[in-house]
């Protein structure tokens, strides 16, 4: 397995492939993403423990969505079992995936603690209006520090689950190779993220106009919520292609 460096323009190709692959199996891909969101919502009802468990399973779920995308690209119908692909590779891979989840949670916790220390508890925060609170948040150094700190964390974990599961790379090494691949293809990943940002902005504007035409909040909600689900599903569908093109490796095996 060798690292591949792709041109920045490949980022737009990843966006197109994600949309195209999603449209091959829209009910399956959106249904799997809805199942993932439903599980997260249920876990969120359990104080602290639910959030910790959801974070622990994040790399495994990301791999499941990538596996579903790969199935759709190959013309196969992604089944619900794709979501638990990470837990079907044997005890060693399951332990490795949970190790990644623990490290991811630890990274998030460190960032949140640092952001909390920087932000403190400013006097008068409880009496701020919504507009003042939003202005304070946007101009907060802690917010921008948190966003900046999330970038290397995401680079570490972007390819790690796939490397661990499909190529038997140990957890720590998978983080290193993921970081190297993300940095080598930072131009393509930046274009990829900007492309999706542009699509989400255009999509949001279109939905706002449509909601205004419909006039009623209930009628607008019937369109907005499924549409947001589809867009998020398309984004996660496209992540598989960022991995596939970043490494020169033999074809990954098909799960049974």
Word description of this protein:
This protein is an all-alpha fold and 256 residues long. Helix content is 75%, strand content 2%. The radius of gyration is 20 Å and the shape is globular. The chain has eleven helices and two strands; from the N terminus they run E-H-H-H-H-H-H-H-H-H-H-H-E. Residues 252-256 have low confidence and may be disordered. The chain has helices at 10-24, 26-44, 49-56, 58-73, 91-119, 130-138, 141-157, 160-167, 171-184, 186-214, 217-244; strands at residues 2-3, 247-248.
Q: How many angstroms does the end-to-end distance come to? A: 23 Å
Number of helices: 11
Main sheet: which strands, in order across? Answer: 1-2
- Biggest pleated-sheet summary: 2 strands, antiparallel
Average residue pLDDT:
84
| Portion in beta strands | under 5%
The total count of strands amounts to 2
Query: How helical, in percent, are the residues?
Result: over 70%
Give the overall silhouette. globular
Question: What structural class should be given to the helix and strand makeup?
Answer: mainly alpha
């Amino acid at each position: 397995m060798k690292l591949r460096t792709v041109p920045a323009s490949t980022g737009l190709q990843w966006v197109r492939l994600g949309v195209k692959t999603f449209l091959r199996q829209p009910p399956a891909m959106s249904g799997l993403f809805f199942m993932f969101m439903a599980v997260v919502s249920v876990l969120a009802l359990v104080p602290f423990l639910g959030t910790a468990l959801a974070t622990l399973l994040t790399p495994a779920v990301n791999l499941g969505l990538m596996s579903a995308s790969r199935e759709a690209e190959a013309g196969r119908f992604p089944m619900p079992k794709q979501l638990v692909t990470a837990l079907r590779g044997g005890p060693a891979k399951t332990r490795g995936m949970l190790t990644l989840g623990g490290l991811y949670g630890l990274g998030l916790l460190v960032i949140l603690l640092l952001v909390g220390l920087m932000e403190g508890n400013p006097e008068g925060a409880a009496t701020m209006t919504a507009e003042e609170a939003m202005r304070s948040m946007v101009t907060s150094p802690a917010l921008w520090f948190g966003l900046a700190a999330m970038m290397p964390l995401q680079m570490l974990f972007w390819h790690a689950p796939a490397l661990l599961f499909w190529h038997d790379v140990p957890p720590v090494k998978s983080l290193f190779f993921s970081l190297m691949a993300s940095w080598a293809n930072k131009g393509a990943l930046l274009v990829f993220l900007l492309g999706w940002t542009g699509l989400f902005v255009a999509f949001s504007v279109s939905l706002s106009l449509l909601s205004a035409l419909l006039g009623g909040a209930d009628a607008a909600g019937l369109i907005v919520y499924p549409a947001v689900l589809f867009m998020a599903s398309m984004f996660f569908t496209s992540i598989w292609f960022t991995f596939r093109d970043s490494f020169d490796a033999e074809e990954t095996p098909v799960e049974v």
